[in-house]
Amino acid sequence: MDFTSGGGVEGSEPHNNQFYQCEENKPLLADMSESNNNTKLGAGPCKRSLHHCSSSGMRYKLLHEGDIQVCVVKHPRTFLSKILTSKFLRRWEPHHLTLADSSLTSATPTGYMETSLPYSSIEDLQLLSWDNAPKYCVQLSFPGGTVLLQAANSYLRDQWFHSLQWKKKIYKYRKVLNNPSRWDVALKEIRALVDMALTSPLQDESIHQAPLHIISTLLAENSNLSPQDHENIIVAIAPLLENNHPPPDLCEFFCKHCRERPRSSVVIEVFTPVVQRILKHNMDFGKCPRLRLFTQEYILALNELNGGMEVVKKFIHSMHGPTGQCPHPRVLPNLVAVCLAAIYSCYEEFINSRDNSPSLKEIRNGCQQQNDRKPPMPLRLLRPEPPTPPPATILPLSTTPSPPHEILVELERNNNSANTKRKGGPTRGDSEPNLIDCLLVSPAVNTLSIQLPAQADRVLGCFALILKMLSDYDDWRPALASLLQPIPFPKEELKYVIQRFAEDPRQEVHSCLLSVRSGKDGWFQLYSPGGVACDDDGELFASMVHILMGSCYKTKKFLLSLAENKLGPCMLLALRGNQTMVEILCLMLEYNIIENKDTQLQIISTLESTQVGLRMYEQLCDRQRELKELQRKGGPTRLTLPSKSTDADLARLLSSGSFGNLENLSLAFTNVTSACAEQLIKLPSLKQLNLWSTQFGDAGLRLLSEHLACLQVLNLCETPVTDAGLLALSSMKSLCSLNMNSTKLTADTYEDLKAKLPNLKDVDVRYTEAW
C-alpha cells in the first residue's frame, strides 16, 4: 500500500503538502504537549492512551527490527470511519519490519507494506488496547489512513511504541539541525534533543550517541561559530557526556576550544568530568586516538591557568583519589599513554622523516599519500662541543655497533635540504638524511642537542612533570615502572622518575630497571657511566646497583653481567669511594667471578686505594680464611639444629670448626630465613638439606641454586617459597628428591621442573595446586 498517495504527502490534496512542510520544519520543543492535546478516547471498548516518556518506570531496549502483525486502514479521519473499522472488519498481515533511519520498511514488501512508511508521514503515535480482547496495538496515523501494529504482549507493544517514537523524533531533529539559519533556534533544538535523550525510557548505547553524532556533524559543518556559541553548545550537551565518550568530531571541537580559550569556565566545569570518565573507563586509545588528543589538550589548558602545574597536580590527585590505593585500574595506563603520545608528538617531525610517512597530524587532516605531505619542518642538529651548551633536550643514542664513521648534519630552517659531511664510509646517495640514521652512524657521539620550538618545549615539560607526579604514588609505581621500562626518554625530568624506581624496595618496581630482553638496554644500562643518559658521574647507577644488590639480584648471574659489561665503571666509582661499588668488587673476588689474574690484582689495587675499600678487603680476607677453615676436611657428616634456632645460631655453629665432611643438614622446625643461605653455600659437600617448616624463601633458593650444584635431596615442606624461587631449582641437575608439600607451587612450574630435572625421581607436591 502506498502511504504517500491518495491523500498522502504527494497526493492530490494540497492541504496535506502544506501540513508536511510545517511538520518537517517546526521546532520540536512542544512535541510532548501537542501530543497530549491530541489524546482522545476511541469508540466502543477500544481505549487509546498516550505513553509518557519518563526517567522512571519500565525500561526497554531500542528495537531495530522485529516480527509484528500489520493492519492498514486508509480512510478519512472521521468518527464514523473509526466505527466501521472495528476489530471484526480488520485483516492482519504478518511482517518482519525494520526501523531504518528514515522509514519503516518490511522484509517482504507486499500487501499493506508494499511501500515503506516514511517517518515524516507519521502524524501521531498512540497505544491501543481492548478491554474484552487480548490485543496490544500501536496506532500510527498518517494523512488519509491509519497503520495498526499488533504485538504479542503489552511489553512488546510499548517497546515498539517507544522505538518508533524515538526513530521519528531523531529523524526530525536531523532535518531541523541540518544547516540551520538561526543559531538561537538551533540551540533550543539542541537542548530539546538532549532532554529527549535523557528522559527516554529506552536503554541503548545509540540513545545518547545518536544526539552526540547529530551535534558533532552540525559543528563540523559550521566551523565559524562565535566563542559564545561554542560555550552555549558545550553546556547544552554536557548532560549527555556524563555517561558517554564524545565522538571523534566532537573531540576535535573540544580540542579547538581548549586551544583557543584555555581559561574558559567550560574547561573546568564541563570538560573535567568528561576527561575523568575517559581516564577511568577508556580501554584502548588506539580505537579512538582523538579521545587521547582531547585529554592532552585539556591538560595543557589546565597548565595555562594561573595556577599552572599546581592545577594539573590537583587534577592528577583527584584521579588517584584520597586513599592510598587508586580504585580505578585504568587511570594510570591511560595517563601514561597520554603523556607518552604528547612527548612523542614533540619529536614527531624527526621520527617521521625516516621514511617520509604522514605524521599523526597530517593523517588527522586527511593526508594519506606521501606525495600529499608537506615538507617536514627543517631543524638544526648541532653536535655539542665544549664549553657546555645551553640547556637542551637530550636524546639517548642507540648502542648498536656500527663502523667508525664521523658525521656532521645540519638541517637549516630556511630550506629543505641537508648538508651531510662524512669522513670515511660509504655514501647513501642523494636521499635526505634523517635523525635516526644520523644517530646510528657514530657511536662516539653520546648526546645530540635538539632545539625545540617554545611551545613544544612547554608541552614536553608539562607531560614529563606529570610522569614525575605519577611516580610519587606508591601504588602506581610498580605499574608505572613496567610501562616505562623499555622506553628511552628524551627529557631530564624523567631522571627523577627513574630515581624513584631505584629507591623503591619492592622487587616488582626496581627489577624494571634492568633490560627486558637480551640486546635491549634498560635504565640500568642507559644511566651507567659512559651510558647515553648518564650525566651525574654514575650516582644514579650506583643507587640502582645498591637496591638491586639488596634484593634477590645478589647472585652470580648479576655479578657476571657487571663484570662483563660494567667492570670499568664499577672500578671507577669504587676508586672514588662509592661503598656500593666497593662491595660489588669484593663479591666478585669472593665468588671467583673474575678469572684473569691481572684483573684480580687491579681490583685489589682499586680496593686498597681508599679507606673504605681497604677495610672491606681486609674483611673479605678474614672471611676467606674462615671459609678455608670451615671447608677443611673433617667434622661431622650429619648435623641437626635444635628447634627455634635462628640464622645467627647457624652462623655461630658453622664458625666454630671444620665442616668439610658435612653432607646432611637438618634445619627443620627452626626459625632460619633466607639469610642463612649465605652460610649454607659455604658447605661444599652438602647433599641433603631439610628446611621443613622454616621461613626460608625465594631469595635463599636462588642463592642455593647457584652455589650448591651437588645438592641431591631438598625438603621445602611448609615453607613460604613460590614459583619465583622454585623455578631457580631447574639449574640443580643433581636433585633426585624434592619435597614441595604445602607450598605455593603451581601446576605450570611443576611441569617445568620435571622437564628440566632429569634425575628427579621422588617428588611430593601434596596440598599444592599441582596436586
From TrEMBL:
This is C-Maf-inducing protein. It is found in: Cytoplasm; Nucleus. GO terms for cellular component: cytosol; nucleoplasm. Residues 384-393 have a biased composition (Pro residues). SUPFAM superfamilies: PH domain-like, RNI-like. Residues 59-177 form the C-Maf-inducing protein PH domain. InterPro entries: CMIP, LRR_dom_sf, PH_CMIP. The keyword Cytoplasm applies. It comes from Pundamilia nyererei. Keywords: Cytoplasm, Leucine-rich repeat, Nucleus, Repeat. Residues 366-399 are annotated as: Disordered. Coiled coil: none annotated. PANTHER family: C-MAF-INDUCING PROTEIN (PTHR25480:SF0), LEUCINE-RICH REPEAT-CONTAINING PROTEIN 73 (PTHR25480). Signal peptide: none annotated. Gene3D superfamilies: Ribonuclease Inhibitor (3.80.10.10). It comes from the Eukaryota.
